[in-house]
Amino acid sequence: MSHFPESQNQHLHAFAFSHARFEHSRLKQKPAVIWMTGISASGKSTIADALDIALQEQGRITAIIDGDSVRGGLCRDLGFTDSDRDENIRRVAEVARLMLEAGLIVIVALISPSSASRHYARSIIGNEFFIEVHVDVPLETAEHRDPKGLYKKARAGLIKHFTGIDSHYDVPVFPEVHLDTQALSVAQSVETILDWVTRHDDHT
């Protein structure tokens, strides 16, 4: 696990951001970051998409940050070494934090394999607003699904540092929400997350 550096030479303006701002948000919703973690082909993006639709149907204002999308833009300069993965997660967490401050419910779908990097993301976003969702599936099931053919390439040595093959995934110990995607359908997974959000929503 690499060290997460902090700048020694930046002096940030003290904007009037506070928890009280959320209580009077024009969006009339409690903002949150729903951080979905799991190995490739676990179902993160599919569930995130369905969750986004369900939240919007409730009148909530949302945004999705998907791992593949940020790899093609915000983080396209990064590889898949441990340090690059850490930086990828840091950037996503910082963007999610900005969206959170705007009052949005942010859905992040990111492998985020290390527990230390997920803890760091939680510290950036704030524990009160961070909802860790473990999208859980056995490796053999994910390999069988393999919609992008990535596991096959990793097994053949064509992809290095691939989570679950030659790079470790730290299984979340105490996630806010655990989804067994072998037992739960997409709709059931979404309902499980919505139930947690509703029970912890100060504005409902």
UniProtKB/TrEMBL annotation:
Keywords: ATP-binding, Kinase, Nucleotide-binding, Phosphoprotein, Transferase. It is an enzyme of class 2 (transferase). One of its GO terms (molecular function) is sulfate adenylyltransferase (ATP) activity. Gene3D superfamilies: P-loop containing nucleotide triphosphate hydrolases (3.40.50.300). The active site is at S112 (phosphoserine intermediate). This is Adenylyl-sulfate kinase. It comes from Pseudomonas fluorescens. It catalyses: adenosine 5'-phosphosulfate + ATP = 3'-phosphoadenylyl sulfate + ADP + H(+). InterPro entries: APS, APS_kinase_dom, P-loop_NTPase, Sulf_AdTrans/APS_kinase.
